[in-house]
Amino acid sequence: MTVALEQALSLNIPNPSHELVQVVRGSRSGLAINVAIHSTALGPAAGGCRIAHYADPAAAIADALRLAAAMTEKNALAGLEHGGAKAVVALPTAARPAGEERTALLHDLGDAIESLGGRYIAGPDVGSSPVDMSVIGSRTTHVCCRPVEDGGSGDSSLHTARGTLAALGAVADEAFGSPELAGRTFGVIGLGAVGAHVARLLDRAGARLVVTDVKAARRSLAEELGATWVDPDDALTAEVDILVPAALGGLLTAGTVPLLRCAAIAGPANNQLDETATARLLAARGILWAPDVVVSSGGVIHATGVELRQESEERLTERIQGIAATLRQVFHTARTHRTTPAIAARQLAEQRVRHGRSSPTRSAALPLTSRAAGPMESEPPTSHATTKRGC
């Protein structure tokens, strides 16, 4: 795995500053489990478990590194006392394991998380679910977003969508001078768990919708909402007021930006920009882009609030609505300093991380664990890890 790690660090990840990168070969599944902890300056790192197919080991490690760094920004900008991390399981094919094979993999994930002693608190991501978190939770207490019936906060997708709606109001205000969503046209790309909630919330707000998904079966939601359905290949170039990426990232590139026909872009999909320079291309075209690390933070705000801080729903709603205020601060900074929202968000996050690192009141030695955490099995972790620090 050393070669794969070196290759990953060369894949468009400038000046990586991660605290730890751990590559584990699961003793049960035999699959590579990549855990990247970017920062614990604000507190234990929090981030999802992604289970997906990658072309090669280096691509999986690189994705873990990028996603972990993005989680540091997301958590800092959300005002949470958490750093950023991510677990990425590299599947050999596009087929996802099921049954006993899936259980074996999830137990391996739990062991890898537990071996970090509370530095990383895991949750669902692409390819994993709240039910999976319960299985992982049989091996570690450091897990969030179990089903409500298991004592957890449940599916976070609705709360991610609620945060997205708050963000869209701030984007509309910046782009059109009013936070009103009614009458505006939104292009929602991806109608999965989060995207479907976003579409429904926008419909209730009186917005006009253009939607798509790679799964044709999801066209039924378009019919339910009276939305215009477009082919996935045409979604990016649809003429809309605001484009809402709600599927996988990497959608915005030097090749796709010239094709856009929208005034603004804001959605819950992670890592929408293929590289930082693409933000400048959007700005040059006069297209407002809302950093996805801000837009998509409603889920982690709610999950950690319920399970780690025991906050009331009223307080959590205030926090989620606060995403709009954070975006307005980002846009104001970008305008004032004549920079992009991407850079403005990163600078604000770095400022908050620096403040947290220097604060004498924060104790990194006391990792938080979910109040829903179940009993640990007595068998110790048996996976073998290769760790590289300070990379």
Automatic annotation (TrEMBL):
It comes from the Bacteria. GO terms for biological process: L-valine catabolic process. GO terms for cellular component: cytoplasm. It is an enzyme of class 1 (oxidoreductase). Its main location: cytoplasm. Residues 351-391 are annotated as: Disordered. The keyword Oxidoreductase applies. Its EC number is 1.4.1.23. It is found in: Cytoplasm. Keywords: Branched-chain amino acid catabolism, NAD, Nucleotide-binding, Oxidoreductase. NAD(+) binds at G190, L191, G192, A193, V194, G195. Pathway: Amino-acid degradation; L-valine degradation. One of its GO terms (molecular function) is valine dehydrogenase (NAD+) activity. The active site is at K86. Coiled coil: none annotated. InterPro entries: Aminoacid_DH-like_N_sf, Glu/Leu/Phe/Val/Trp_DH, Glu/Leu/Phe/Val/Trp_DH_C, Glu/Leu/Phe/Val/Trp_DH_dimer, Glu/Phe/Leu/Val/Trp_DH_bac/arc, NAD(P)-bd_dom_sf. The keyword rRNA-binding does not apply. Residues 154-361 form the Glutamate/phenylalanine/leucine/valine/L-tryptophan dehydrogenase C-terminal domain. Belongs to the Glu/Leu/Phe/Val dehydrogenases family. Homodimer. This is Valine dehydrogenase.
